[in-house]
Amino acid sequence: MDESATVVVVGFGAAGACAAIEAAEAGADVLVIDRFTGGGATAISGGVVYAGGGTRQQRAAGVTDSPSAMYAYLRHEAGDAVSPATLRRFCDESADMLAWLEDHGVPFDARLCPYKTSYPTNRHYLYQSGSEHAHPDPAPRGHRVHAPGTSGGTLHTRLATAARALGVRFLPQTEAVSLILTPASAPSAPSSAPSAPPSAPPPLESFAVEPSSTAEPSPVPQRETAAAGADHAEGRVVGVECRTLRDAPAWARFAHRRLHRWSVKPGLYLPGFGRAMHRLAARIDNRHGRTLRIHAGAVVLTAGGFVFNREMMREHAPGYRGLRLGTPGDDGSGIRLGTDAGAGVRHLGRVTLWRFLTPPSALLGGVLVDRDGHRFCDESRYGAALGDAILHRPGGRAWLLIDATVLAEARRQLRSQTLWFQRLPTWWLLTIKRLRAATLDRLADRVGIDAPTLATTVTANNTTALRIGPSNPTASADVVALASGSGAGDVDVVAFGSEADAPIPTVSADVVAVASGSEADAPIPGTRDGDAAVSGAVECDEFGKPLALVRPLIRPPFSLLDVSLRASPAPMLTLGGLTVDEETGRVLRPDSTEIPGLYAAGRTAVGICSGSYVSGLSLADCVFSGRRAGRDSAATSPPAPRRSWVPVHRGRWSIAQDRQGISEPAPEPETPARHTGADSSDPTRPASRSSGGGQGDERARRH
């Protein structure tokens, strides 16, 4: 039995939900299908949205920010994955984008995190989620959804509730197997000249489709350099052929849903278990799934990336090994749908791989070295930049050198600065993955690092730290005394083993000269005036690390923390995808002509974060690109025939089919809550169905 809709959205994560909401608000009849039960990688994410330019939360926290400052930072950090005009538009619309999310029930909070972290605790919801602190006009732009723990589930639940209130239909456990296209009689017009939609779409029965299996994802051909040719074999996208469990036995739908949930969590931390659960779910899908063809005026692909597709990872990003972030649905199926229709792809080799040193924030005072003893980057940079830097060191090996003072401070911060999922890895790093010794020479010998080079590296760090000691707010009393010359010989050495009287091996004659004041006017070694090393009021060392974070490493025992990529799993996700028109979200062929009726957003498409990544930028791009695709698809799609099934009010979205004689009427759509300008934690704020604990939220949670 065929179905139809003006706009069909494939995938119900953040990008899919935003596309559906935007299209529905434009008056389109919207149908969302999802291979599983919705949520995707969004639902298991931290729920951080990167936004700036003067959001309500920034203003409430006393933060000054502007779209220009946000643009300058992202232009440096994210590279040229999108045009400057698109990045500028993203920054200019950023504050309004966050307000749009609030208007659709997503809560945010203005409590500012006072320290550098990879993810704040439940006491803070606004933080510097990238490397902004070392750039001009730094501002916290990581807006975490106001919910305990990892709050991505709340983000998706609220967007799903808003979509349902607008009449968006949802068909879960339905996989898009292939797109249905009309034969093309002439090449499509370039994307810069939008084509008018046809007056009426042709019937589905005139096009044959060959379904594929869901058990093994197909590889995606690389089309970055291939030409599509002037004579395209396929034309407008007019529908989707699916495999669905909607008519399957109730036990099969329940088992499929449960197995998928287990494949995501705990499958995220137990990959072998997750793969086994996914194979069982795929077996149910192959046995009980039935073909369903959906007529569409336009199709929006929002099916995630391909980090779970081993063949694609081997082909496009063979150097990356890590903990795959996402769900088994992130297997490139959305990208494959596009390339099978003739779409081009870009940046498939771009993968973000994270190695966070914080929390605890004290570890930013350490020095990151490779196996040759060389320091190679700013330790305070975002985890993706650190992961990429470590990946390109010999053997992917790296260690963080700290002293007894930094270690003690990090241990004190362990409980106060971490959530449950951060606490165990941090404890593991500070204990199991730590080697210590009373001297640098002995420590270098234990690890196999070149000792003279390591000593030179530490001396350079200490020279900088002691040079700025009196003005550094993080410096200890001993450091201030040493730097001022009043206590250069009185710094205690922590006894360890048989070398309690060993001299401090990292204070050279140059350091003593600096500490005594004889070189008080000497410049900090390696400071680059006019570059990232000096950013307005933020003065940095030769690697770009803010001087306020530079700590002297002078108290034994010294420790090396193994932060190599193989020492512990490094989370990763893919960033490339289908090439799209940056004004409309329409999918493009390799020759830059558009595929009429086909759109893509989120990690299925090239977007803002496809060049590089900071926390929250992917979700922000999902909102930005999803809304863009939803608006344009609704505006250019031909009207669809009346649908043959409607959602039934049964505590979650279900299907009522005309041929089964189900006559229960659909509920009246709920109006999404419009949030006031008050803070989401304000107890005087009026309660609403979408922001409180009403029936609408309860139905969404059960779903």
Automatic annotation (TrEMBL):
Comp. bias regions, Polar residues: 678-690
Keywords of the record: FAD, Flavoprotein, Oxidoreductase
Domain of life assignment: Bacteria
Gene3D superfamilies for this protein: FAD/NAD(P)-binding domain (3.50.50.60), Succinate dehydrogenase/fumarate reductase flavoprotein, catalytic domain (3.90.700.10)
Residue ranges of domain FAD-dependent oxidoreductase 2 FAD-binding in the record: 7-183, 287-613
Alphabetized Pfam families for the sequence: FAD_binding_2
Residue spans of biased composition, Low complexity class: 185-194
GO biological process, one term: steroid metabolic process
InterPro entries named among the record's database cross-references: FAD-dep_OxRdtase_2_FAD-bd, FAD-oxidoreductase_2, FAD/NAD-bd_sf, Succ_DH/fumarate_Rdtase_cat_sf
Record's protein name: 3-oxo-5alpha-steroid 4-dehydrogenase
Obligatory cofactor(s): FAD
EC id: 1.3.99.5
PANTHER family linked to this entry: 3-OXOSTEROID 1-DEHYDROGENASE, FUMARATE REDUCTASE
Record's compositionally biased regions (Pro residues): 195-204
